[in-house]
Every structure is written in structure tokens, then in C-alpha cells.
Write a structure and sequence with these properties.
four-stranded antiparallel sheet, six-stranded mixed sheet, alpha/beta, 10 strands, 237 residues
């Protein structure tokens, strides 16, 4: 299981959003850190085939990002995922499962499993418009897991989650990383420092660090803040 990012670039007129990023990812959890505007979301959208790169390639086990086989193994949670407010959580997941070509009996089983996994089983039949921000985010996490992806791309997935939900989510991601490649983008260091097998840091469209972070390197948050700005009470920027 290998995701190869090779000299990936994205340029908008005179601005380079992602600048020749290269990395190899294997089974495990990868935390992608960077301030707003660092290029994290642009990179993730190219990894998911939503944006076409200006240069470079993305492959998963030899499959190009544009191939159907690549999309079949991909799960994606964008910062703002679209949903239908009049749908119930369950109906929304069943609808997306149908779009992904998952057979109805399997889809119903998987939907029930995921609603339980993200603690929405009691709210599954309620309309999404009645959900809190945290509940909508948990539903977004569930939809990203529908097809049991081998490559899971999560863009700021803990936005809107309370501290208890955040801890539960981190535990879930840690378990998913045992059987898949999980790339988790955030600007909250505590979301990844205890669960990421490797840390990637982006600044001005480039990777400035990739590797395992251990105590010998010092405090991750202090290093991060030295690169990206001063600390506030939440360790955010």
C-alpha cells in the first residue's frame, strides 16, 4: 500500500499554491500541519482528483489519481462537505452509498455501523437541518468511511467537535491507520501529535518537514509555532 506524490504543483496565475511537493506514504496516520494559506487544502484536493495539478503526479499502488480504481479506494472529508438539510442522516448516507455503487443491503448494514461508530445512531432518523455543527461533522466523517477506503483524506475534520468528541475521533483515526493510509490536515497540533506515525509540515506551498516526531526533536507545538505564528489559548493560529 503506497501513495506516491511526485513533484506535485498547482499554480494560479502569478501565485504558486503548491510547489513541487513529493512524498511517499504507506499504511499509517499522517498529520499535515500548516497555517491557513500554506497549501494544505489545495494539496488534498489534488490528491482526491478534484483539482488538476499544474505539474507532477499522484498514484496509489500504481493507479493514477484520474483512474476509477483510485476513486474506489478513496474516502474524503472536505472542510465544508455538502449535504441535503431535509434528508435524515441515515437517508443521506444511503444516498451517497448508492452513488458509490454499494449494493442496498450492504449499504444499509454499513450505514448503521457508521452511525453507531460516530455516535449518531439515535439521531440517524432526524433531519440533518436539526443537527448541531459537531453532529454534522461526525456525519461527514461517516460519509468518508462508507466505502471502507484504503486512502482516507481528512481536511480539518475536528472542526466543530467538542473536546470529548475530539478525543474519540483521534482514537478512531488511530485505529483506521492500522489498515489504511490516513492523511489528516489540521492546524491544531494536539489533534495529531499522539496518533500520527509521521508529521508533514507545509509552508508557502512547500513541504518543510516530513518524518516521525519524537521527544529527541523537542516539543512539536513549540517548533510548529516557531514556524507559523504565536500561540493562543487553544494552541491554534
Amino acid at each position: 500500500m503506497e501513495l506516491i506524490i511526485d513533484r506535485l504543483s498547482k499554480q494560479y496565475q502569478n501565485r504558486i499554491a503548491v510547489d513541487r511537493v513529493s512524498a511517499k506514504l504507506h499504511r499509517g496516520v499522517y498529520g499535515l500541519l500548516g497555517a491557513n494559506g500554506a497549501g494544505k487544502t489545495t494539496l488534498m484536493r489534488m490528491l482526491c482528483g478534484i483539482l488538476k495539478p499544474t505539474g507532477g503526479t499522484v498514484t496509489f499502488d500504481g493507479m493514477d489519481v484520474s483512474e476509477e480504481g483510485y476513486r474506489a479506494v478513496l474516502g474524503y472529508l472536505p472542510q465544508d462537505f455538502g449535504y441535503y438539510p431535509e434528508f435524515s442522516g441515515m437517508d443521506f448516507l444511503l444516498y451517497l452509498a448508492a452513488l458509490k455503487g454499494i449494493p442496498r443491503p450492504q449499504a444499509k448494514r454499513r450505514t448503521e455501523e457508521l452511525l453507531e461508530l460516530v455516535s449518531l445512531q439515535e439521531a440517524g432518523r432526524k433531519k440533518i437541518k436539526t443537527y448541531s455543527g459537531g453532529m454534522k461533522q461526525r456525519l461527514g466523517i461517516a460519509q468518508a468511511l462508507l466505502n471502507d477506503p484504503k486512502l482516507l483524506v481528512l481536511d480539518e475534520p475536528t472542526a466543530g467537535l467538542d473536546p470529548k468528541e475530539r478525543v474519540r475521533f483521534r482514537n478512531l483515526i488511530e485505529s483506521l491507520g492500522k489498515d489504511s493510509i490516513v492523511l489528516l490536515s489540521t492546524h491544531i497540533v494536539s489533534d495529531i501529535e499522539h496518533i500520527a506515525d509521521e508529521v508533514l509540515m507545509m509552508k508557502d506551498g512547500q513541504l518543510i518537514f516530513q518524518g516521525a516526531w519524537n521527544e529527541d526533536r523537542g516539543d512539536l507545538e513549540k517548533f510548529y509555532l516557531s514556524q507559523f505564528g504565536e500561540e493562543n489559548t487553544n494552541g491554534e493560529l
